[in-house]
Design goal:
It is built from seven helices and five strands, in the order ααβαβαβααββα. The chain has 226 residues and is of the alpha/beta class. It has one domain (4-211): Undecaprenyl pyrophosphate synthetase, CATH 3.40.1180. It has a three-stranded parallel β-sheet, sandwiched between helices. Strands 4-5 form a two-stranded parallel sheet. The chain is globular and about 55 Å long. The structure holds farnesyl diphosphate. Residues 1-6, 19, 22-23, 26, 43, 45-46, 50, 61, 64-65, 68, 117, 168 line the site of farnesyl diphosphate.
Length: 226
């Protein structure tokens, strides 16, 4: 969800206005995902690297997150949306951590859509934390498999992402779902996140449906020889 700051700066507004508008888009895109029957939506809200931003901006984002969690809980229950945080909880304040745990617990049984909110998240950090769990459990070397590691990721039990959309024109992954994105499709749009509407989301899904995913195999399982 990139481009909140630029969206605001282009309008001569404080960056916080971009983040506020960004939260509105979160609600809109979540609704659209529900309507499309998408089962998992992962939102990259705050990276581990984002902790290096000015204290004042971090505080704006954390306050917006708090308001979002409090205000949207009813909607999560009404729409049967399960909320799950992925990321490193150690750096979050106890207050935000407790609130996240409360929303996770309350929405645990909801099954229409799972929203993964990546907060204080880094893909490399997630892999390191998973490897540490393997070692702590004295896992025998031959039992270290892709499946076993996947079960120790924050996304355990969720499918790998089919499509990763990055807004704002940047064409990089920025430490997002490094393990899980091995065979994901990517879509980069120059639209800034606060301008990313339901219509553009639907267009992105349509584009995705035209992709030819082979997962390293040849088309239709046929052997093509020249
Ligand atoms: C990227 O834009 C956006 C962020 C680092 C924060 C995103 C946060 C929200 C949308 C609000 C909180 C999230 C939820 C789920 C309620 P940027 O600031 O990097 O923009 P720039 O690259 O133009 O400076």
């Amino acid at each position: 969800m990139d481009g909140n700051g630029r969206w605001a700066e282009l309008r001569g507004l404080p960056r916080s206005e971009g983040h506020k508008r960004g939260v509105e888009r979160v609600s809109e895109i979540t609704r659209a995902a529900c309507g499309l029957g998408i089962k998992t939506l992962s939102l990259y809200a705050f990276s581990l690297e984002n902790w290096n931003r000015p204290e004042s901006e971090i505080s704006v984002i954390m306050n917006l997150l708090e308001t979002f969690l409090i205000n949207d809980l009813d909607n999560f229950m009404k729409e049967s949306i399960r909320f799950r945080m992925i990321g490193n909880r150690d750096k979050l304040s106890a207050h935000i951590r407790d609130l996240i745990e409360h929303v996770e617990k309350t929405t645990e049984a909801n099954a229409r859509l799972v929203v993964h909110c990546a907060l204080s998240y880094g893909g490399r950090d997630e892999i390191i934390r998973a490897v540490r769990k393997l070692l702590q459990a004295d896992t025998p070397i031959e039992e270290i498999t892709e499946e076993r590691l996947a079960c120790l990721m924050d996304t355990a039990g969720a499918p790998d992402p089919d499509l990763i959309i990055r807004t704002s024109g940047e064409q990089r992954l920025s430490n997002f779902l490094l393990w899980q994105s091995a065979y994901s499709e990517f879509l980069f749009t120059s639209t800034l996140w606060p301008d990313f509407t339901r219509e553009e989301f639907l267009e992105a899904i349509y584009q995705y449906q035209m992709r030819d995913r082979r997962f390293g195999k040849v088309k239709d399982g046929k052997i093509q020889c020249s």
